Amino acid sequence: MDAQGQEAEERGSRMKKDLIIWMPNGHTMKFENVTEFRGFETIIQFEYDGVSTSKHRRAAFERSKILGYALEKEAGDDGN
């Protein structure tokens, strides 16, 4: 990635998607209604609606602290 702000791997999307993050301790976290997802070289960041709190939140995770993640694909998304 270039030094100009580490261009996002995935562009922020306004479509609401589900996101699952796998943690090293074996736990998973599920986020619903995820928007504005951006995957950078060292972090992932996104916005989501808290299920238990009903509040809109912004979150960020260091890639080095997670095992992986899965973001719901948009219809017609060929992965490129």
In words, what does this structure look like?
This protein is mainly β and 80 residues long. The protein has strands at residues 17-22, 28-39, 43-49, 56-62, 68-71. It has a five-stranded antiparallel beta sheet with strand order 4-3-2-1-5, with no helix packed on it. The two termini are 16 Å apart. The model is unreliable at 1-9 (pLDDT under 50).
SSE inventory with pairings:
Layout: E1 17-22, E2 28-39, E3 43-49, E4 56-62, E5 68-71
Antiparallel strand pairs: 1-2, 1-5, 2-3, 3-4
Summed up:
With 80 residues, the protein is mainly beta.
Oligomeric state of the chains present here: single chain
What do the pLDDT scores average to? Answer: 83
What strand line-up does the widest sheet have? 4-3-2-1-5
In DSSP terms, counting alpha (H) and pi (I) runs of 4 or more, how many helices? 0
What attributes characterize this protein structure?
disordered N terminus; mainly beta; 5-stranded antiparallel β-sheet; globular; 80 residues; single chain; 5 strands
